[in-house]
Amino acid sequence: MDILDPLLHQPLRTQLAAFLAGAGEASFSELKRNLQVSDGNLDSHLKKLIAADYVGLRRHDGPGRAQTCYSLTPTGLDALNRYVQALHRLLPLDAGASAAPADGVLAR
Fold first, then answer.
1. What does CATH list as the number for 11-89?
2. Which end of the chain is more exposed for a tag (fewer CB within 10 A), N or C?
């Protein structure tokens, strides 16, 4: 049986990793706005992803305040891909079954 990455198995951290995988890079305010989370909640989860080397940060000066941008590291992208693959293996679908039935329950 596949073991799901405990770091990514938390919904907000999965969303953060997926968002950064698609966006490439995002500022704190962009992440906060798109994921609709509080400053404290976002900061807490980002710190965990940074500590695991799943997310990297880049500070840059521009007009006004300095800004920090976040991106998924190669380690983070690999972890996200493995996590998604593990989910696929845990949720096998029949070849003829719909991936998203109207009632929201996966067919077996």
1. 1.10.10.10
2. N
